[in-house]
Amino acid sequence: MTDTAFTISAADRSASARPRDAAFYQNPYAFYSALHLGTPTFRWQDYGHWCFTGFKEVNALLRDKRFGREILHVMSRQDLGWAPPKPHTAAFDLTEKYSLLALEPPAHTRLRTLVNRAFVSRHVEQLRPRIGRLANEIIDSFEADGGTELIKSFAAPIPAIIIAEMIGLPAEMAPQLVSWSNRMVQMYMYGVTRDTELDANQASADFMAYLRDVITERRRVPKEDLLTHMLTADPVDGQKLSEDEVISTGILLLNAGHEATVHTAGNAVKTILESSLDPKALFANEEQTAATVEECLRFDAPLHMFTRYALSDVTLEGGLSFKKGETIGLMLGAANRDPMRFRDANTFDPFRTDGQNVSFGAGIHFCIGAPLARIELQVALSTLFRRLPALRLATEPRYNNVYHFHGLERLDVAW
Ligand code: HEM
Fold it and tell me: Tell me: the pLDDT tens digits for 377-414?
């Protein structure tokens, strides 16, 4: 099957869709729909590895302990045929070294246990009033203008300020944190260049230096914040967190804590305004607000593909085999649109009852911030549509020219 943006060969279960092609990243769902028709598991030529789009398969593989996000704990770089680490990305690599997203048990379990307490629903639920105040203050600042670019003015500051405050950094630092984070996450996109690497490395070095200074300050004068909590938490398995672990975790939380939420908020506003549905009905009460947010997460997920390494030689049910160290791609954005799992999968329906999605992943790496992100989205979106009932799109929104992040470049709205 061919489209301008992709080709699929059912005969050898392979496909090509260039992650840098605007026709593809503006609407990856055309590719996913074509794959769901007969080639849900395929070799993506542009990446050079097998990918899975079926909901059942993605959900199962995310939980499958034979696959992991880390590989160097069971294989050497030499065995993998990898080049030595690049000296010019040393600072970036150090921020990754102790990242939850780069670890598997037992190191992952220890770190996650220490961080998890701060993010349980019971705890983050207390932030609801603060998020509501912030959303209202931000709308107050632009309401009289009759229009705004919503990503920069509304979607971005809310999660950035909230996660900065949770960690214990001043809200005024949020724009700087967002800038470091934006430059670092370029490393996760398709086709990274040397310039991108150098820039991400510089951002990492600056980010680490800033956090080291704040940590020195917290050791002197502890506060009621996550940074102090991580520095003073009781040891797990006899070990406290090292300074590098605290810095890695802080950076991961600051980056993961806003990037995906910003994109989800933008995609959600676009989806709602493009639908013919009445926002009043979508946010009629708390239960419906939660269901609307879930459907926005399903319908236009902000993160489309996460990879895993086979930790041993693996043969899957169905016969597909992977050698130890091989990469697979789990396509969250496609799994959420699987017609085998969802009725009218390509229809935005906030009243559906089969809405459970994999936008936050599953298994041991399931998003630690999911309860927080859900509350932020529920409060921010319901406040926005209540305060600005005449909200409409002022220009056609366009997505950023990257894959696998799927978020809007800008979102011009008027009321
Ligand atoms: C709508 C917003 C968000 C989405 C869609 C999202 C999505 C995800 C996904 C898919 C993963 C798992 C990746 C994998 O399995 O390979 C993940 C992990 C993670 N997320 Fe989120 N996330 C969001 C918001 C947040 C927030 C607000 C925070 C923090 C405050 C956060 C922190 C993390 C962390 C620390 C991990 C790593 C967990 C681990 O490896 O154990 N995320 N997120």
Answer: 999 999 999 999 999 999 999 999 888 899 999 999 99
Ligand 1 centre to CA of 261 (Å) is 10
Phi-psi region of 177 (alpha: psi -120 to 50; beta: other; left: phi over 0): alpha
Q: Are strands 14-17 and 412-414 parallel, antiparallel or unpaired?
A: unpaired
> Which is the closest atom of ligand 1 to the Cα of 103?
40
Pocket lining: 372 vs ligand 1, CB cutoff 6 Å:
yes
- Do the strands 412-414 and 392-393 form a parallel or antiparallel pair, or are they unpaired? antiparallel
* Closest approach atom of ligand 1 to CA 253: 29
Q: Mind listing the pLDDT tens digit for each residue in 90-144?
A: 999 999 989 999 999 998 998 898 888 778 888 899 999 999 999 999 999 999 9
User: Three-state SS across 29-41?
Assistant: HHHHHHHHCCCCE
Question: Using alpha carbons only, how large is the chain's radius of gyration in Å?
Answer: 21
Q: Count Cβ neighbours within 10 Å for each residue of 160-185 and write b for 16 or more, e otherwise.
A: bbbbbbbbbbeeebbeebbebbbbbb
Nearest alpha carbon to residue 258 among 270, 266, 269, 248: 266
226 touches ligand 1 (CB under 6 Å):
no
